[in-house]
Amino acid sequence: MSKFSIEHINVLSINAYYDKKTTTQINETSSLLKYTSQHFHCHVKLTLNECIANEYWSIGLIQACDYMYLENRYGNYGSTLWEFHPLRSGRHKMVNDSDGNQYPFYSLINSKYVIERGNVTNNLIKLTYEDHFYPTIAWELPYYNGIKLTNVIRKQNFWVWLVAIKHIKQQKFNAQYDEVYILNTISWYYQLDMIIDSYQPIGKRLQSIYDKQYNEPIILDDNRTLPLSALNPPHCNAAQSLIWYPTNRNDQSKLLIPPKQIIVPWNIWLNEMKLNQNITLNKPNYCQLVKNWLNDKEIGITTNSTIQLNHHWKTSTINLTTRINRKLIRNWSNS
């Protein structure tokens, strides 16, 4: 039998969509607003030709975020913002969005398939994952005279890659030695805008919500390479921090929730996040320093995989109007 290579992978179908059966669910408690967003799904079917693998391979789905704006507004007094320092500082192009257990893949379960050394049989492989958001937000800020929540704004852009990785030394990903082959690339965008009246009784505080995703996820005609930051730590949940930004310039910003992982020393992180105003903020013991990719170069070998897309995806992929609208939304979100 022949030696396993990228040509032995046949992508049969890709389906990425917002689940119409799920909507934004709101839960108002005495102290917190909780919401669960609409779900994003990604499903892939592929087959492998019979052959022999001389190295370890991994096939799976990688997700990364290159734009995030998460604001909880408290009237004219200011806002709390969830932020990724690697993006805000411009040091990294993206932040890997995984559970952190098996970089670079989204998760250990269902979104990754491992090919061991030896005989490879001809079988059907299904890769899948689901993503949604479930934050909690304080109705009021006691450390700032009890000001009350008025708006929740969320805008995020994600990239998804179906990749095959040839591991040179071991199954754990190594950016220096491993070969990354890009089979397909997907992009999707999520937006949410809520108006809140925190003076109303519990259960009646949500006044309006805008959560319609007008553009379906897009499978790119031409694959995009991956920046190193999309493949390595930190991941989104570890990189994010929550900071209070007052409108009054005489007041100081306040770090509410520190990150779990940083890519620069703590004093540099504070300086780049504008949190060095005459206040000593000690680094939490749990906060770890991870690699800063000084040259966040893009890697990956693009391939011409065998794909049979259904009519829905053929239409959404080549629809010029959808692409133009997508660009307009991204330009608007960055304004």
From TrEMBL:
Alphabetized InterPro entries for the sequence: FAM78 (IPR029638)
Organism of provenance: Schistosoma mekongi
PANTHER family in the record: PROTEIN FAM78A (PTHR31655:SF7)
Domain of life: Eukaryota
Name listed for the protein in its UniProt record: Protein FAM78A
